[in-house]
Amino acid sequence: MPRSAKSDVAIVVAGQAGQGIQTIESILTMVLKRSGYHVFATKEYMSRIRGGSNSTLIRVGTQRVSANVNRIDVLAALDSDAIGHLAHRISPETLVIGEDLGHDAGSEVVDIPFTRIAGEAGGRITTNTVAIAVLYGLLDGEPEVLEGYLTDHFQRKGPETVRNNLEAARLGYREGSALRSSGRFSHSLEPSPAVKDEILISGAQAVALGAISGGCRFIASYPMSPGTPVLNHMARNEKRFGVVVEQSEDEIAAVNMAVGAWYAGGRAMVTTSGGGFALMEEGVSLAGITETPLVVHLAQRPGPATGMATRTEQADLDLALYAGHGEFPRIIYAPGRIEEAFSLSHRAFDAADRFQVPVFILTDQYLIDSYYCVPGLDAGVAGPETAVVQTSPDYKRYALSGDGISPRGIPGNGQGIVCVDSHEHTEAGHITEDIDLRNRMMAKRMGKMERIAGDSIPPTLIGPEDYRVLVVCWGSNYHIVAEAVSLLGRNDVAALHFSQVFPLPPGASRYLEKAEVTIAVENNYTGQFARILKAFGGFDVRYSVRQYDGRPFCSETLAGRIHEIAGGGDRR
Amino acid sequence: MKGNRFDPGPLKTSWCPGCGNFSILDALKTVYGSLAIDPVDLVVVSGIGQAAKTPHYLNCNLFNGLHGRAIPLATAVKAANPRLTVVAEGGDGDMYGEGGNHLLHGIRRNPDITVIVHNNMVYGLTKGQASPTSPRGFTTSLQVHGVTSEPFNPLAVAITMGAPFVARTFSGDREETSRVLAAAIRHRGLALVDILQPCVTFNRVNTHQWFKDHTEPIPDTHDPADRMKALELAFRTDKLPVGIFYLTEDRPTFTETLPAYETSDEPLFARKVDREGLGKAIEELK
């Protein structure tokens, strides 16, 4: 099994829900970034409020880190169940630290008295700070950065809280340093000062900020993991960016509200997951025939039905592609990188407005809940902020003249009336069953597909251009596949990532046909994207690597599976 | 009706001759014509059914959407542009059956819209099945042995939930219907107007004559601010009271509670993205 060169350390913090894993993760990652380390974090958790066994992976690197891995270099176990929970990932090289855990699952645990140290510092409430500082000391981070962060973070709780936490940090750091000096942990990471100026952003934040950048002014949704974090981020920005944020009574109301907001001129979206989206389907069809723009953020989790509520999967591609009765055009984006979650969320609003179609931002729990350092995001604007026209007195919403896209007016903006109808309709927007009009309206709507395809996002080639083996992936697997290919280090293996999965970008076949061996990597059982390539691109992907256990791929294990299929070839 | 700016002129409707919808349409033209708004400022959102086709026979903005979903869609139209006058219109199956949940939550949210329900106690377009307001024992091709469920009481539900304007009229009394509709549209907040209406094809029980015999005006002595009295009126079944049951001015509307309108009353389409603020929000992630 290939293992990455030690340019990064994989830390896992594990314990029960409610023990503070989240706090440790959010503070430690930010402090490490501000010290000049690249960080990547992703969590796996159970669908419950307290208890259970959850963990978060924090990769700390001298170079960019942005993919899930299986290996654990340091495990901070907050309870004894954590060790059993992660037994399959613990190796002889894993340093396991914990408090009063004794020997479990065959692992030697280095005892760190987190709560006793916290008691000395001013109370058990500072235990998380101790844990953060132990890990930070173990990595030899700059103590001043941690102190500065904690001072700011606890300021509003008063000077005593600040003092106690600084003391907890000092004692914890000392413990971490001592462990480092003991020789049980020998990784040494050089900081990269440029990282200090980068931003640390999650997939959910990127989707929300991208939507705001795309002019989103309205979001209505019903809470459902893992779609909810985007709704939370929009709510946090409600006042700041003047966004109407509403928790609807159900997903049916949510999608109809989004359609209504677009009709009246507000760029709108919904955020949901498979089960909630299934309820929205009739509304998607409504957007289709009324040619009302619509943006749907669909964060996938394993189904069917409730499936595994807090885990990840890529099995709702078919759902998005075929959602809604009848035939109408649509666009499906599947961002692979967090930067792309931002840019494509923005783009979704422009495309929906321009083509008057539903546009999907298809993510999953893994992308939404992961975060890493990126140099920055462009808050600027590339094009017009709206495609809405002022209406004239004789305005007809579904005018058949022109270039196939009827100019979209909105009520109260001009001198015309805007009549929109879920029935097949006349140019003026009234019910019709006329054969000729039906044929012309269908042709007008479906005709947009060609223009949409012309505006596609091309796939990204990762690795050598003269490949023999091509690994095909889409959506959140970008970094995992990229790292797997890089770990293999073979000059005959490359990857092709699609962040637009429908319509297929023209020219994709150029890459596919060049390969001797093609392998589709997907987080689903049936190979949904491979089927799209076959149905709409006429291309048969020969091999597949599929995982549907609710967990993301790991780059090292994936590299192994690719190598097995690719056969031959030299490995560095 | 001559010269009414909301009248699109002569056109064919898809309603049966003698349908109660005709008098409701006439009343609506009169009411809209009496308001200080232009057709471009009025949006009528409707669902599916014969009643939901009403806006097609008016000269105004319309969104004829899905069965049952007029209220959330209309709520969003009003939230996206509070300067528009917004009406949600449909039948009893549309608003009380398929869209029942939206009615409840629409009342809780309290957008400044008027909900007009053509209540003929039967499904017309799907050919005569029972509706949520059909009386017990009502027989149809589907309820062969008669309806066994208790009829939905929209007025009692709306009053209980605190809808700020609750009224019932009978389509046969065009003048009273017009008066109530005008008051409903002018009222700030969600106004529910349940309009009793005969279905000449599928309801042989609740006919024009039946409604005449079984309705009576709410007495002038009724104080519509008295919620308990309003509820008592709503519970009456021997005679169905018609008129304004309940009204209150003290509930904030949905738009009034939205942070997006705290510092600006501009409709959403007229706003520009705060690029500088967005740049700052990104910087804060450092």
CA-based shape of chain B: globular
**Alpha-beta content class of chain A:** alpha/beta
Q: What is the terminal separation of chain B in angstroms?
A: 65 Å
Number of helices of chain A: 18
- The counted number of beta strands of chain A is 23
- How large, in whole angstroms, is the Cα Rg of chain A? 26 Å
Spell out the helices and strands of chain B N to C. HEEHEHHEHEHEHEHEHH
Mean pLDDT level of chain B: 96
Protein described:
The complex is a heterodimer of chains A (572) and B (286). By secondary structure, chain A is α/β, with parallel strands linked by helices. Chain A contains 18 helices and 23 strands. In chain A, the strands form four sheets. Chain A has an eight-stranded mixed β-sheet. In chain A, strand 12, helix 12 and strand 13 form a beta-alpha-beta unit. Chain B is built from ten helices and eight strands. Chain B has an eight-stranded mixed β-sheet with strand order 2-1-3-4-6-5-8-7, with helices on both faces. The longest helix of chain B is centred in the N-terminal third of the chain and has 15 residues. The model of chain B has no long low-confidence stretch (mean pLDDT 96). Classes of the chains: A alpha/beta (572), B alpha/beta (286). The interface between A and B is large, with 71 and 59 residues. Strand 17 of chain A pairs parallel with strand 2 of chain B, so a sheet runs across the interface.
